[in-house]
Write a structure and sequence with these properties.
about 325 residues, mainly alpha, 13 helices, about 0% strand
């Protein structure tokens, strides 16, 4: 029989090593997640600037086409897929995390207030936790998580209303916004499954974008049909005029904004987000999505000279308090 002291020393040493490994993974995950969320938070500013020359669908398609091409240049290596089941997971990620999420959110903005969409889409950490508990048997709906959710959502409501708007219900648009949140949650669950297989985040992201572009083709076809430019009030319009395209693509600011959205916000950030989810855990990383309304309102205040009220500032503080509470482990 081993002496008690050496045996305890071995166990304590293993525990300390495990704690150090967990801490290192947590720090690396934060270093990936925080810049990603900051970049995603400012995409509102870039998209708003581009909407004067491009439709929402054109921005979406160009953005992810650029990202797909950039990831091929970054990692010119073929991804070996283990059968049709794994390919179906990639297709599901492209459909839910990119095409459906963006499509539903844009349609929701047509049918309801932007403040409603901001608030309802922000419940995705809760729906992600719920799906993870149901589908992956993860214990995610803890007391800390629920308390942080309530605190963060209170802050999000204050930030999105910002002392200006009054929340009102628009059933069609509000349901579409909820569907967008649920779509992102399904994407998050699929990311968890692929991360468990140790898939390269860059190759995984590139395959996701491939299927996202494939899923956008029906929308592209509808937009190119006679009268298709009126679909969803022009949100999914596509201009194929050579003269118009030469003019709008010749503007340096448009190219800069498209490059930011395609290369940074899509190619880089989706890859770093998937890597952050692998290190932090998908639910824990997704909690950071609470901060996006706060980041957006701060950048809009700085760069677009939009009004920031005391209510908005208080909401920002509540959001970050909720993130800290939800992300803590007992």
């Amino acid at each position: 029989m081993l002496p008690a002291a050496p045996f305890c020393g071995i166990i304590c040493g293993q525990t300390m090593d495990r704690q150090t490994t967990d801490r290192n993974a947590f720090v690396k995950g934060l270093l990936l997640a925080v810049p990603t969320l900051l970049i995603w938070g400012v995409t509102f500013v870039n998209t708003k600037a581009l909407l004067s020359d491009f439709s929402a669908f054109e921005i979406l398609f160009i953005r992810f086409f650029m990202a797909y091409a950039a990831l091929w240049c970054l990692r010119p290596k073929r991804l070996v897929v283990a059968g049709w089941r794994e390919e179906a997971v990639y297709a599901g990620m492209g459909l839910t995390g990119v095409t459906a999420y963006q499509f539903l959110e844009n349609c929701a903005l047509h049918w309801t207030n932007a403040s409603n969409v901001c608030i309802l889409v922000s419940i995705s950490p809760m729906t992600t936790a719920l799906l993870s508990q149901i589908l992956l048997r993860e214990r995610t709906l803890t007391g800390r998580f629920l308390s942080g959710f309530v605190l963060a959502m209170a802050g999000i409501v204050l930030v999105c209303l910002n002392g200006v708007y009054v929340f009102s219900f628009h059933p069609v648009g509000d349901l579409l916004a909820l569907a967008a949140a649920l779509s992102w949650s399904f994407y998050s669950v699929l990311v968890t499954k692929m991360n468990a297989r140790g898939t390269d985040p860059i190759l995984m992201t590139r395959r996701t974008f491939f299927w996202a572009l494939v899923a956008m083709l029906p929308l592209l076809c509808v937009s190119l049909l006679p009268g298709g430019n009126t679909f969803a009030d022009g949100t999914f319009a596509v201009d194929i005029s050579a003269t118009a395209n030469m003019a709008r693509f010749a503007r340096p600011l448009n190219l800069l904004n498209l490059g930011f959205l395609g290369l940074l916000a899509s190619a880089l950030c989706f890859a770093t987000w998937n890597a952050a989810c692998a290190r932090l855990g998908t639910v824990r990383a997704t909690i950071g999505i609470y901060t996006l309304p706060a980041i957006t309102i701060l950048f809009a205040w700085i760069f677009l000279d939009e009004r920031l009220t005391v209510i908005g500032a208080l909401g920002t503080a509540l959001i970050f308090a909720g993130v800290v509470l939800s992300g803590r482990r007992s």
